[in-house]
Design goal:
By secondary structure, the protein is of the alpha+beta class. It has 4 helices and 3 strands; from the N terminus they run αβααββα. It has helices spanning 4-12, 21-28, 32-41, 58-67, and strands at residues 18-20, 48-50, 53-57. The protein has a 3-stranded antiparallel sheet with strand order 1-3-2. Strand 2 (48-50) and strand 3 (53-57) form a beta hairpin.
């Protein structure tokens, strides 16, 4: 989750279009392991592989987050 050290990483990544898994997790305020699980399950944001490294486009993260918006805790996820 977000710590002062991770906040510094996010600030450094602010101008970059692609984020590492750790940076993406901090942006979404989840653990990196959650991002890894979502990638395995195919339920999280889209990702890319650049030379074998998993990266997330900032626009994809924000679009995925927007699709998670709900008005009630009993509203099922819509894909």
């Amino acid at each position: 989750m977000t710590s002062p050290q991770n906040e510094a990483l996010l600030k450094a990544a602010a101008g970059r279009p692609f984020l590492t898994r750790a940076e993406a997790a901090d942006l979404l305020r989840v653990h990196a392991k959650t991002m890894e699980r979502w990638a395995f399950e195919g339920s999280g944001p889209r990702f890319r592989r650049h030379n074998g490294r998993v990266v997330y486009a900032r626009d994809d993260l924000m679009a995925w987050s927007g699709r998670q918006a709900r008005t009630s805790t009993s509203t099922p996820a819509m894909l």
